[in-house]
Design goal:
6-stranded antiparallel beta sheet, mainly beta, Jelly Rolls, 43% strand
Length: 167
Amino acid sequence: MLPLYILLTLAGSLTLARSANPDPPRSTSPRRGLSATQDCNGPVAFSGTGGVQHPSRLVAYRRTLAEAGVGWNQETGEFTVHCPGLYQMTFAGLTEPGAKLVLKKHSSSDNSTAWSPVISTPKGGGSNLVLLSSTCCGVRVILSISSKQLKESSSKDFPRPSKETTI
């Protein structure tokens, strides 16, 4: 009787373990394109932790803690504004001494390929909170490191607390 009980418990545990597999993490790129962004009435927000430095010095994130709306690309760490409104951008991280985290933006209406620095941390890292008002779509925002290496801990949160409304 005891071996049958153990076998049933094991079979039940395996069934529960198989049914508990979560969905893979969602990313707005490349699955959801601009056509999915026509409705800007909902929330637009994302939060990521576990910074990873690309060879291009972009900072991306291993874990997405929250994602609502569109525009966030976890693989590159780039955020593209698809919905006009006020965006609150918060980032924090540690770098090697002498390096800074720099928040940069690029507007699609500019004819250049240059990224404009918005704000940076002191050397060695730190944190910042920035409000960015965007009345048009296509503005891109990235977090990069000025030089040297990113240390393990970093995070970024970009919610849109206010949307633009027209009357």
